[in-house]
Every structure is written in C-alpha cells, then in structure tokens.
Specification:
265 residues, alpha+beta, TolA/TonB C-terminal domain
Length: 265
C-alpha cells in the first residue's frame, strides 16, 4: 500500500512538471531586428566555412550583457566575427507572464559559402547597384561594407576567367569600369581577357578604401597573369605580336607604380 501511494505521488509530481513545461508563460529572448551576418572577407577568400554556437545573457532591456562561445567553428576568424556580431545585436528580452526577465539564450551562426554560377546580367546588375550604393553612402562603415561586397564580385569574375578563358568577357568588363581605365587598356580588349582592369578601376574610384592592400595584391597577380598570356600568345599570333611590346611595357610600368604602394600599406 505504501509503495502504491509513493508511485501515485511520483505520477502527480511528474504530471505537474510536464504541465508547467507545456504552458506558454515563458517566451525566450530573440533577436529584435534582422541583421546580415558579417562574413569576414578573409574567410570568404580562403573558403572557410563553419557554425558557431554562442550563449548570450540578455538583460530585461534587450541588451546582451555577456556572451560566450558554446561550440567553436574550429576557425578563430569565424569565432571572433561571430562574437563581435552577437555583441552588436539588440534583443527582445525573455518574458514570463508577459513580464521581461533577464535570461540566457542560444544562437547558432552559420557561415556557409554559396556557389553561384557566373551569370553576366546578374553580375552586371550587382556591380552597378554596389557602385551606386558606395557613391551614395555617407556612413564610412556602410560604405566599406559595400566596397567589400564589390571586391568579392570582382574576385568572382577573376575566378570565372581563370576557369574559362573567354575573350568575350572583356565586353562585360567594359560596362563597369570608368572611361579612362577602359582607354588606358584598350590595346588588350581584342587580345587577352583583362579581369585585372576591374581592380585597377577599384583603386581609381576608391583611393582611400581600407581594403586597398587586398585589391592591390589581386591587381598585381592578375596583371602578371595577363603579361604572361601576352608573351605566350605573341609567339603564335602576329596580331598580338604587333602590340605585345607596347602592352608589356604598359603593364610593367603599372606594376612598378603599384609595388611601393603595396609596401606602404
């Protein structure tokens, strides 16, 4: 009989626990506004991916008081970016009976690269939009964010050209660079693909951009590649051979201009 009562009491206790768990008295904290995840440009270029799980203690006013990484992505660059991102968020605090309370919440931040096939129209639309946003932005942080996105688009173009050596890509490039850059490299348009010109255009448009050391490195890399193509193709093409010396001289001059800039930065 005693065992029967003990068993009954245990059932009642468990019933009470499950009843509390199924009520809607408690609502956990959640992010108040939609924010784009800050994916570090260095991680994107190095093709680093991963998930970061962060615990956040949210005050009754919705501010994050304390944050800690619960599960690392395995990459310091992603963990650090996730930590900074979370501490800049604003939350709707947790509530009990609609009254705000301070509590811990858990966020999972997923850093995943999206492989998108190069599409001419989409690329042109993206670049045109970003150039307009950069020109219109008065906020330095916002402007830099747009410049980073533009740089990533240019890297995508360079990667495409590396895989598909198509001279027609110059017709696309000409639509997004300034007239003076286009004129500067006009000898190349009918000879070899010239993705380096978008990076040269970037430096010309945004001489004080914080990521110009990256842009300069990529420009130098692409120009060296273009010079090599001109030298090789001049051996089998009379058309390229006639212009080769002039083109190579211009490339060498630009490379010499860039080297001191890269060292200073």
């Amino acid at each position: 009989m005693i065992r029967h009562y003990k068993h009954l009491i245990l059932i009642l206790i468990l019933s009470a626990i499950f009843a509390c768990g199924t009520t809607k008295r408690f609502h956990p904290a959640k992010v108040a506004d939609k924010h784009n995840l800050d994916y570090p440009i260095s991680a994107q270029l190095d093709k680093i991916e991963g998930d970061v799980v962060i615990g956040v203690f949210v005050n009754t006013d919705g501010t994050p008081e304390e944050s800690k990484i619960l599960e690392s992505s395995g990459h310091t660059v992603l963990d650090s970016a996730a930590f900074r991102f979370v501490n800049g968020l604003h939350f709707e605090p947790a509530t009990v009976d609609e009254q705000p309370i301070a509590s811990w919440t858990r966020l999972v931040l997923k850093y995943k690269l999206t492989e998108i096939a190069f599409e001419e129209k989409r690329w042109l639309d993206d670049v045109a939009m970003l150039q307009k946003q950069i020109a219109a932005s008065l906020n330095p942080g916002e402007r830099l964010n747009f410049q980073r996105k533009l740089y990533i688009r240019y890297i995508g173009l360079a990667d495409y050209v590396e895989k598909y050596d198509q001279l027609e890509i110059n017709n696309v490039i000409e639509q997004v660079i300034a007239v003076d850059i286009r004129e500067e490299w006009k000898l190349l348009w009918d000879l070899v693909p010239a993705p380096f010109t978008v990076f040269d255009d970037f430096l010309s448009r945004y001489p004080d951009c914080a990521i110009n050391s990256l842009v300069t490195e990529e420009l130098i890399k692409q120009m060296i590649e273009a010079e090599g193509q001109v030298r090789v193709r001049s051996l089998t093409s009379a058309k390229i051979a006639r212009s080769a010396n002039q083109i190579i001289e211009r490339i060498e001059r630009r490379l010499n201009e860039l080297q001191p800039v890269l060292k200073v930065q």
